[in-house]
Amino acid sequence: MSGHARQHPTIKDVAERAQVSPATVSSVLRANKNVSDISRQKVLEAIEALGYRPNRLAQALRTQRSRTVGLIIPDITNPFYADIAQGATDQARESGYGLFLMTACESETALRQAAEELVQRQVDGLLLTSVGLDYAITPWQLDKVPYVLVNRYAKTAVADYVGIDNRSGAQEVVRFLHGLGHRRIAFIGGLPHSSASRDRLEGFYAAMQELDLTLSPLHIGFADLQYDKAMKLVQSMLQTEPRPSAVFAADDMMALGAWEGAQSVGVRVPQDLSIVGFDGIWSTAWAGIQLSTVVQPRYELGRLAVSLLHERIQGLTSPARVRLLPYQFMARRTTAAAPIDSVRSIN
Amino acid sequence: MSGHARQHPTIKDVAERAQVSPATVSSVLRANKNVSDISRQKVLEAIEALGYRPNRLAQALRTQRSRTVGLIIPDITNPFYADIAQGATDQARESGYGLFLMTACESETALRQAAEELVQRQVDGLLLTSVGLDYAITPWQLDKVPYVLVNRYAKTAVADYVGIDNRSGAQEVVRFLHGLGHRRIAFIGGLPHSSASRDRLEGFYAAMQELDLTLSPLHIGFADLQYDKAMKLVQSMLQTEPRPSAVFAADDMMALGAWEGAQSVGVRVPQDLSIVGFDGIWSTAWAGIQLSTVVQPRYELGRLAVSLLHERIQGLTSPARVRLLPYQFMARRTTAAAPIDSVRSIN
DNA sequence: GTGAAAGCGCTAACAA
DNA sequence: TTGTTAGCGCTTTCAC
Lengths: 347, 347
Hints:
Shape of chain A: elongated
Low-confidence stretches of chain A: 1-6, 342-347
Number of strands of chain A: 12
Radius of gyration of chain A: 26 Å
Strand order of the largest sheet of chain A: 2-1-3-4-5-11
CATH class of the largest domain in chain A: Alpha Beta
Number of domains of chain A: 3
Oligomer: homodimer
Largest sheet of chain A: 6 strands, parallel
Helix content of chain A: 40-55%
CATH topology of the largest domain in chain A: Rossmann fold
Distance between the termini of chain A: 93 Å
């Protein structure tokens, strides 16, 4: 007997009203056991009448399952991550999970803190898209919380990984630019310690070498995935002599920044400078933009990551899986044949 | 004695190792009571040694506070909501809350379900940015979960509201276009049942009237905040005769779609057609875009919403508050003086 | 300053 | 089929 002016009705209140035991109510709730139709009916009525809502926290405490996954992304404001997040939430809902969101800017400690809090909140699993993984991940190798890596993997981490073949994507871009007559191709990297950035850089190098293109040290730099930094970097690259005829940025944000940088110093895109991005965020397809880029299946990446995580949560113990999804290079309006002088300089 | 091969150490394990009672450990954890330095020391050491992490779920169950807020947005993929979400997560973290994310596409039942689940998960408060509010909100008027409305308010809901003065923002846009010589201004609305869309439409009407401008019924329509729909809508608007010389879209996404629509039928922006958006998502400022728009303080909206919510959770009972933040109209590259024939047609 | 005991709301044996 | 009991991990009186 505990029912006067309490906040929310509990399973006990329901039991009382339905004249059954709490255990029976619980059974009805989980639609699982053998409960007589008569009891079930009474319980259902009581639930309805009382406006009862199960307390998921109590359930979780008891069952040791919160039916919650944690998602850590650097920045929800970045459309690339937003798309992944959308895929993740959708798949999570369909699999019966709630989604806890944490943003951890690109720092190891932030990632660590976020993961720590998520673990304390008893998430059943973790989705990690952030950097700093190499170091920060080790701790919860020990804990039993399964996790899957999205877009960036970590050398030390033995966990499922979902992404694309960044290396070959980057190669394809360089080959395409080469085919357009470009010989001086600049590269703007993202975060040097992100596997995705590293792989793209590697692919870039490999293709340059394969095509016998030389690379000026002035034509390579990193802009931390930041629009502004890429803008400034390109401005300075365009001061060099001979200047690049094409810029390949390791992500769309930087490519867009590069574009603004070029425009700000009177260099026309694509006539004077071709620009290629990476990721294929939606805005690259807009009428005013039409950025050439490598389109990743971002939404599907998010979905797939949750599926794999779900399997792990269910107890799957197979060795770490790697799932590489197909990407697609899209040549759009920011790439054109290299300017004459550029080609001549090679012949 | 309960400690062989258990998953995670509990407060009991810590107590045992530190040779104190669980109650003492708890006191140390919350840095609150009178605990002797000697005990505290022992406890801290035990925590360290065992790698103990408090179980936030158990804490929540006991204290009836989950230190969690729920955020419901239509679509995390929409930069406008992403910015709000970022502000919300940041402020939430600073206030000691975790953030549960749910997306509920623009439907009443989806919103209802999302809120329902969040309540079951015992969030301390709710942030609502979705539509369908008028109907769906009523239920948890009854429950004790406080909530605040962001960007859209509901007539029936008596709750804190955070937004901007959409009506006057829209008026400002029309006046600006009028000043540029535009006389035939089309309007693309978002969701008719969203307060934000309604207010913008209202402001549009008011200004048109105030300036003695007539409005063809062919020059007004709704595109559900969708890029594609706006694109098609504008295509058909441009078939009308006389056609509009300016389009005012109730959100940036639609403005961008309108742009593509115009381009697809050979109408130049801004020479033949001026376009204005609303919200001021970041991409409108990019080099390739430069969309004229009404810039909302999206990030601050998200932050403020959480602050207000926090106060409510603390027990504040003052009547519903309305917080209107300043906006800023930015005339950029998609607006220009009306074409000659357009002006002439008025004189 | 500290510990024993009760209980948050629920589920899972086990008995009946 | 149903109810009783114990307890998930924690906090919180209330004695001592």
